[in-house]
Amino acid sequence: MVVTAVPAAVLVVPDTSANVISAAVRALGLGDGQVAGLLRATGLALPALLLTVPLAAVAARRFRAGSVLTTGTLVLLGGLGAVRFASAVPLAGTIRAAQGVGAGLMLPASLVLVWERGSRALSALWAGVLAGALLAAMPVVLHAVPLPAAGTSAADWRAALAPLPWPASAAAVAAVVCLAARGRGPSPLPVLRRTERSQLVLPLLPAAGFAFLAVVAAYGWSPGARIVVALFALAALLGLALIGSRDATAGSPFGCAVVMVATGLLTYPVAGPLAGLAAVGAHARGDAAGVPLAPFAGACAAAVAGALASVWIAARAGGRAAVLAGYGLMLAALPAGAAGVAGLAGGAQGRWTLPVLLVPLGLGAGLALAASLRDAKPGAALFGLSLCFPAVLTGQLLALSLQAARLQRARPVSEAGQLAALTGGYRTWLVAAGAATLLLAAVTTRLTVGRPAKPSTPARTSQRPHSSETAAEAGVEDGAQASAQASPRTFADAAPASLMVPQQAPPPESQTLPRVAEQVAEQVAEQVPERAPGAEGAAEPSGG
Question: Which parts of the chain span the membrane according to its record (predicted)?
Answer without folding.
Answer: 38-60, 67-85, 97-115, 122-144, 164-181, 201-221, 227-244, 256-281, 293-315, 322-346, 352-373, 380-402, 429-449
